[in-house]
Amino acid sequence: MSLIRVDLRSRVPIFEQIVNSVRDLAIRGLMKPDEQMPSVRALAAELAINPNTIQKAYGELERQKIIYSLAGRGNFIASDLTGLMDTHRQALLHALANDAAQAYRHGIPVAEIEKTVSEAIRSANFGEEKGND
Predict the structure, then answer these.
(1) For position 132, what pLDDT does the model report?
(2) Is 23 helix (H, G, I), strand (E, B) or coil?
(3) CA-closest candidate to residue 37, choices 11, 19, 13, 64
(4) The pLDDT of residue 18
(5) So what's the pLDDT on residue 80?
(6) pTM > 0.85
(7) Cα 81 to Cα 88: distance, rounded to the nearest angstrom
(8) Would you say 39 and 74 are in contact if contact means Cβ atoms under 8 Å apart?
(9) In whole angstroms, what is the distance from residue 21 CA to residue 1 CA?
């Protein structure tokens, strides 16, 4: 069973949801470098969507260098995702900095912002530890 999920009620196109899902799974390490992707037919059957949609998503993932294909063997997660992970890390840090600055501009004291961030980190770590049991 695949970790790739789609929401058929979402306004985000299905192929884009697949791209985002695979990108997220790769960044989080839930799909490992050189791990084989589900075949187009298998994923289409599992998600009950048109194989052309899967093919379009895989094409976009390959264009973004998140996956690569081997003729006759299938699609695989890229061996080196360093660039993708660096870009994602920078985007998250930028968003965090913007949110912290906005909170400060709206009168929230620095100590309260720092406390909230620390609690969020502790909460995330606790959730990961529970999930690993």
Answers:
(1) 44
(2) helix
(3) 19
(4) 96
(5) 86
(6) no
(7) 11
(8) yes
(9) 15
If you search the block for the tokens 């084989």, which residue do you land on? 36
Give domain 14-77's CATH number out of 3.10.450.50, 1.10.340.30, 3.30.450.40, 1.10.10.10.
1.10.10.10
Express each pLDDT in 31-73 by its tens digit: 999 999 999 999 999 999 999 999 999 999 999 999 999 999 9
Asked if 34 and 49 touch (Cβ cutoff 8 Å), the reply is no
Average pLDDT over residues 115-126: 87
Token representation of residue 111? 């100590």
Position of tokens 């961030």? 117
Task: Please write down the long-range contacts of 10-18, taking CB distance under 8 Å and 24 or more positions apart.
Answer: 14/49, 14/53, 14/57, 15/53, 15/54, 15/56, 15/57, 15/60, 16/57, 18/43, 18/53, 18/54, 18/57
